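Quick review question:
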């Protein structure tokens, strides 16, 4: 297969059919824009399974995604999309950079759901960017940004309900979108790499923060998330 792109956690290949790509999940874990890096055997399989379960659940509840079919344990066939170069971050509870930036104790329940945009640029460190800046740069139109926010909030509601059944709190997460024939589709992945997930009773971290913060037993958290999802769905 012809490799189109290799990122920190996935490789994208040309698809077998026109207008498609194949995404293969890697075992690599990174943090701090790749400054911290380690291979964790089995991580790609866990992320793929978790993301595929969530994408299928979202699709069944009216969210349009790029996923066409699961090819094997670590590979999926997707629609080839023109990626919108902003990530949407949704926050329900203060944590991570939000807590540091605004001096809010981690774990503080926010009075309303927060949506933020960050520019997709490893070179610039994925800086925060607002609607006016995005439209000024021609990255997306205001109508597209409004749609991204609306879809992201719907995803938040659906995932919060799903994870609540699993005894997990959805703290925050990031989403990526792409354009296919003028239509916005949810792309990339939704996994413990892109979400903060805490046990609802103990607040134990079950996500990538175990790697970022050297909490140990990184993949145990991922396995726990997968097991709970498989039981709930």
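Suggested answer, residue by residue:
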């Amino acid at each position: 297969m012809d490799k189109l792109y290799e990122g920190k956690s996935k490789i994208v290949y040309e698809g077998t059919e026109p207008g498609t790509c194949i995404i293969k999940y890697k075992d690599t874990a990174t943090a701090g824009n790749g400054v911290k890096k380690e291979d964790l055997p089995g991580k790609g399989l866990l992320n793929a399974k978790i993301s595929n379960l969530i994408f299928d659940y979202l699709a069944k509840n009216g969210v349009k995604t790029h996923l066409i079919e699961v090819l094997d344990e670590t590979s999926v066939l997707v629609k080839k999309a023109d990626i919108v170069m902003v990530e949407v971050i949704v926050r329900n509870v203060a944590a991570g950079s939000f807590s540091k930036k605004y001096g809010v104790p981690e774990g503080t329940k926010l009075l309303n759901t927060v949506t933020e945009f960050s520019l997709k640029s490893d070179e610039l460190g994925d800086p925060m960017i607002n609607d006016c800046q995005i439209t000024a740069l021609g990255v997306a139109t205001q109508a597209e940004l409004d749609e991204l926010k609306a879809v992201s909030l719907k995803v938040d509601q659906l995932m919060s309900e799903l994870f609540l059944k699993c005894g997990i709190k959805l703290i925050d997460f990031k989403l990526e979108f792409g354009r296919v024939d003028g239509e916005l589709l949810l792309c990339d992945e939704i996994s413990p790499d892109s979400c903060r997930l805490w046990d609802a009773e103990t607040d134990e971290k079950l996500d990538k923060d175990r790697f970022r913060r050297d909490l140990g037993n990184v993949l145990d958290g991922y396995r726990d998330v997968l097991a709970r999802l498989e039981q709930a769905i």
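Why it works: The mean pLDDT is 96. The CA atoms of residues 17 and 147 lie 29 Å apart.
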